[in-house]
Amino acid sequence: MPSPNPFPPEVVAAVTGHMNDDHPEDTLLICRALGGRPEATAARMTGLDGEGGDYAVTVDGAEHTVRIPWAHPLTERAQIRAEVVRMYQESCARLGVPARGRH
After folding, report:
1. What's this model's pTM, rounded to 2 decimal places?
2. How do 62-69 and 52-59 pair as beta strands?
3. Where are the domains of the chain?
4. Were 53 and a residue from 48, 57, 62, 98 both cysteine, which residue would form a disulfide, CB within 3.0 to 4.6 Å?
5. What order do you get walking across the sheet with 52-59 strand by strand?
6. What distance in Å separates the CA atoms of residue 38 and residue 60, rounded to the nearest whole number?
7. CB 45: neighbour CB atoms within 10 A?
C-alpha cells in the first residue's frame, strides 16, 4: 500500500500550477530525459507525492501518463523545488542541452 501523500492538495495544486505555467519547457525536458518519453512534444505536471511526480505527455498527438520517482522520498515543500531543479539539471546533461542558471 502506498504511503499517504505528505503534501496537502493546495501544495500539489500550487506546485503543478507553477511548473505548468512558468516552466513548461523544463517539464518537457524532464519527461523526455527521465520519463522514458524522448519523443514527447508536450508535457504537464498533473500531481506529486512524497515518492515522485506525475505527468501527462503528448506523443504523436496522444496523451500518456508518466511517473518519475524522486531521487529520495520528500516530506517538505522546500524539498520539491530542490528536487525538480536537480531533475532539470540531470535532464539537460543527459540530453546535451545547456541548463539555464535561473530557477
Report:
1. 0.92
2. antiparallel
3. 1-70
4. 48
5. 42-48, 52-59, 62-69
6. 12
7. 25
**Would you state the cell numbers that stand for residue 99, as one nine-digit string?**
541548463
Place of cell 505536471: 45
pLDDT at 100: 83
Residue appearing with cell numbers 541548463: 99
pLDDT tens string, the chain, 103 residues long: the values are: 556 899 999 999 999 999 999 999 999 999 999 999 999 999 999 999 999 999 999 999 999 999 999 999 999 999 999 999 999 999 999 999 999 865 5
> Do 24 and 84 contact (CB within 8 A), yes or no?
no
pLDDT of residue 45: 98
Domain made up of 1-70: CATH architecture: Alpha-Beta Barrel (3.20)
> How many whole angstroms separate alpha carbon 9 and alpha carbon 7?
7
Q: How many angstroms separate the CA atoms of 51 and 73, rounded?
A: 5
